[in-house]
Write a structure and sequence with these properties.
Elements (H helix, E strand, L loop, with lengths): L1 H30 L3 E6 L6 H13 L8 E6 L6 H9 L7 E4 L3 H7 L14 E5 L5 E6 L7 H5 L5 E4 L6 H13 L3 E4 L5 H9 L5 E5 H7 L1 H6 L2 E6 L14 H4 L3 H15 L4 E4 L5 H14 L3 H9 L7 E2 H11 L4 H11 L5
Parallel strand pairs: 1-2, 1-3, 6-7, 6-8
Antiparallel strand pairs: 4-10, 4-11, 5-8, 5-9
Helix pairs in contact: 2-13, 6-11
Length: 347
């Protein structure tokens, strides 16, 4: 009897190994001749688009069967349109990967938009390419080149915004509330590329989003001094921005610090994640998660990322899922305050 129980125990322990060994041939058979699409929630030329296209050029060789990889842009509502599409319309077959602002998960928690048609806990998460380090940059034409000057500005500084769930919205909104930054959010832009164009034409005076995106896409402006970072909002200062003030250091109350921590630091940690529709077969989820992390270590991918000045600091899909779950455990008072700051007031 004990011998039978021992054999049963060994067999049970080997089941995951056997399953994984069997999944590779099945995945190769499935993906051979297929096309995997990345759906980017912003316009071409922005940071999300650049990251997705760089990954797309390399991930195919790490997926069994070596499928064709394409990138499509589905811009609108700060990437909410694409998030809803991935959740509700994309087939859960492992052939459609979404790349949209993770901040929409927080909007779900605070009930910040009636347009949210998903439950963030039910997505299958492929992985995260880099945790965001948000910064606000202002144009030389604005006449403001330091945080102290911004705080002392007599007129609100016009900041471009793509949508309520994006970092272009929640970063300046929370900084405005927590630090008293004089800012006027100008909404309606489809992507950060449009915000850059508006700033260059003096329609607005700057924007706030991830340094990982700002650095490669607004490189000429940064190098020429036409735009300058004046504040960052990160747990620890970014090495590139050692001389730029950090928002949390300017918070004067515990509530202000909690708002920055929960609303910016934690939200930014999941912004650049990649997701699959709910119900995607677990075997294909595992294949794509593995391919994603292998791509993050691919020498050719890393060389291209370095050339394009793209920061890479990946975490696994399982870790992304844990961070997403943590937003549903925020204390009620912080949820209420974030709701007051981030949810548009009904007129």
């Amino acid at each position: 009897m004990f011998r039978k129980l021992g054999l049963l125990f060994v067999a049970l322990c080997l089941l995951p190994v056997v399953a994984n060994a069997a999944s590779a041939p099945a995945a190769e058979e499935f993906y051979r001749g297929k096309t995997v699409r990345f759906i980017v929630g912003f316009t071409a030329g922005g940071g999300f688009d650049v990251y997705a296209r760089t990954i797309a050029r390399h991930i195919g060789k790490h997926i069994p069967g070596k499928p064709t990889i394409l990138v499509d842009n589905m811009a609108g509502a700060g990437s909410l349109i694409s998030a809803n599409y991935i959740y509700n319309q994309a087939k859960p077959d492992g052939l459609t990967i979404g790349h949209w602002i993770g901040g929409w998960v927080v909007q779900q928690v605070i009930k910040g938009s009636e347009g949210i048609k998903f439950d963030g806990r039910k997505f299958e998460w492929v992985g995260l390419v880099v945790n965001d380090n948000p910064a606000c940059v202002l144009t030389k034409a604005s006449g403001i080149n330091t945080l102290d000057r911004w705080l002392a500005a007599k007129e609100p500084v016009k900041i471009g915004v793509t949508g309520a769930g994006s970092d272009t919205h929640y970063v300046p909104s929370i900084l405005k509330a927590a630090l008293g930054l004089p800012a006027q959010l100008v909404e309606g832009y489809k992507g950060t590329a449009d915000i850059r164009l508006a700033a260059d034409s003096r329609e607005i005076q700057g924007g706030c989003w991830a340094w990982e995106s700002l650095k490669p896409t607004w490189r000429k402006g940064l190098e020429s001094g036409e735009v300058k970072p004046v504040i960052q909002a990160v747990p620890k200062k970014h090495p590139d921005l050692a001389d730029v003030p950090n928002a949390i250091d300017y918070a004067k109350t515990d509530e202000a610090r909690q708002l920055i921590q929960a609303g910016i630091h934690n939200t930014s940690a999941i912004n650049r994640s990649f997701s699959l529709p709910p119900g995607t077969p677990k075997g294909r989820v595992a294949v794509l998660q593995k391919a994603f992390m292998e791509t993050m270590k691919d020498p050719e991918f890393l060389a291209e990322a370095q050339k394009s000045k793209l920061d890479i600091n990946p975490i696994s899909g399982d870790e992304v899922a844990k961070i997403v779950a943590s937003f549903f455990e925020l204390k009620p008072n912080i949820v209420a305050k974030l709701t007051d700051i981030l949810v548009p007031k009904k007129k």
